[in-house]
Design brief:
This protein is of the alpha+beta class. A hairpin with a 5-residue loop joins strand 4 and strand 5. The two termini are 34 Å apart.
């Protein structure tokens, strides 16, 4: 009651926020909840033997690291720092303590957008490369400049590169234009 879910950004690189009142906004993992609802629908349908073969299931790879979401959501909501081991692709492992701001999905992978205590910059951390994640007792405040509306305003991917966005116009046959209107790039 009294909560509104608001989509920010353009699909598929968007996020959802919970608006409890006009002054406070809390990030929401709506797409995760939507995926869970869809999974429950598929599970229920699979129990009906007659339905098997009637549903074409999406080709969605199982993403490693989804178990971290259950630990991160309370920390994001309560504004508590988290610590974890981060395993980079080059094989290096580092201990991190961060202020978890948001969870973002990009190209079928989940990322934590967080302020790193090492250098104070906002970074992305792949959930699939985190281990030994724990919530600390240390609180933090989310600064206005780190609001996702500003962080992801002109972003395709995880972070904005330097420069001004380029306007691109695409011409299409009228028939294909309808597809583009319903599923924007």
């Amino acid at each position: 009651p009294g909560v509104t879910i608001v989509q920010r950004g353009l699909s598929p690189y968007h996020w959802y926020e919970l608006e409890e009142d006009e002054t406070e906004q809390t990030p929401l993992l709506y797409s995760y909840l939507e995926s869970s609802r869809l999974a429950n629908t598929f599970i229920n349908e699979l129990q009906d033997v007659k339905s098997i073969g009637q549903i074409v299931y999406p080709d969605i790879p199982v993403s490693k690291g989804l178990d971290q979401i259950q630990k991160l959501v309370p920390a994001i909501k309560d504004r508590k720092q988290v610590s974890f081991e981060y395993h980079k692709f080059d094989g290096n492992v580092s201990q991190r303590i961060v202020c978890p701001y948001y969870l973002k999905q990009f190209r079928k992978r989940w990322y934590l957008i967080a302020k790193d205590s090492k250098d104070g910059s906002v970074k992305s951390f792949g959930l699939d490369r985190m281990e030994k994640l724990t919530q600390t007792k240390t609180s933090f405040k989310l600064l206005k400049k780190d609001d996702p509306k500003h962080l992801f305003e002109n972003v395709i991917g995880l972070f904005e590169k330097d420069g001004v966005p380029t306007k691109i116009e695409i011409w299409s046959e009228p028939y294909n234009a309808n597809y583009m209107r319903t599923l924007p790039l």
